[in-house]
Amino acid sequence: MIVTHKQADVDAFSSALALKRLIVREFGSQSGEIKVVFPESISSEAERLEKVLLSKQENFEYLNEINEVNGETIIILDTASESQLPNFQEILKGYTFLIDHHYYNSIKKFVSEYYIDRTAYSTSELIASIFPEGLLDEATSCLLLAGIVFDTNRFKRSSESTFICASKLSSRCNYNKLISEIETREEDVSKRMAKLKALQRLSLLRKGELIIAMTHVSSFESDVASSILREGADISLVISDKDFGLRIVLRSKSEVEDEVLRKIREVVERLAEGKFGGHRESMVLESNIRIEKREIESLMKKIKEELQPSLGAE
Fold first, then answer.
1. 24 in helix, strand or coil?
2. Lower CB count within 10 Å: N or C terminus of the chain?
3. Where would I find the DDH domain in this sequence (predicted)?
4. How far is the CA of 203 from the CAs of 34, 56, 167, 302, in angstroms?
5. 209 and 75 share one domain
C-alpha cells in the first residue's frame, strides 16, 4: 500500500503513481495488488494532471481512506507530520516505510524505517533518483517532472541535483508542452477573493527591516501566504479554519534568521496545539482544536502579543 498526505498535491500524486509503476515493473507485481491511498482525495492541480497525463487505457484507481491495516507493508510518501495522515494509529499497525524530503518531519520516530533526504526539493526527485533508466517512459517522466515543477515553484527552490534530475526527465518529456497543458491560465475568482480578504485582515509586526504579516482565510491559505511575501512581507502566517480544526501556513524568505523562525514556531505550536512540518521556508501546522471564525482574530492577537517581546518587535 502507498499512502500520501491528505488532499495530495502534484508532488504527492506524481510520486505515488510513479512508485506504483516502479514496483509493478521491477518486481512483477500485479497492478491491482498495489493499493494507492490519497486521504481526502487529491488537489485540483493533481486532478488536472490526472486528466492530462493518464491515458484512458490506464485504469488508475485509488482510495480516499484507510479503514483497516492487516499486517500490510505501507509506504508513506511526502508526509511530514501525523496530522497530515488521518487514521495514523491504524497505519502504524502495518510495516511502515517513510520516503520524504521535508526539512521538519515528526513522524519518522513512529515508522519502521525511513528514507529522508533534506537536500531534495520534492519527493518526485527522490523517486526519480531510484528509477532505473530503462523503466523511465514518457508518461512517468512527465509525472515526476510535474511533481518537481510544482513543489519547487518552477525551480525557485532547487539545487544542482534538482536540475540534473529535471534534465534527465525532460529528455523523455517535452517540458514546454507539459507546462502549457497543466498550468492554470487564469486564476479562479474565489482564489482572488481570498487573497483580497486576507489583505484586509492583515496584522503586522516589524523588527527593524523585518516585516511579519499575519492574516486568516477560509481557503487557499498556501496561495495567500505566498502572495503576501510577494507583496513585501518577509514572513507570512496564514490561519485557516477547516472541518478538522486549524491549518496554519508559515512562509518566509531565505534571508530570515533561523532564530526568528524558531521563536515564531514555538509560539504558534503552543497556542495552536500542533506541530509544524515541511521546509525551512515553507511549513504547515494542522491542529484538531476547533474554534469559531470570530475567535481566530483573538488567536492572532495572542500570537502577536507573545511575539512582540520575544522578537523585540513592534
1. helix
2. C
3. 1-147
4. 47, 49, 42, 12
5. no
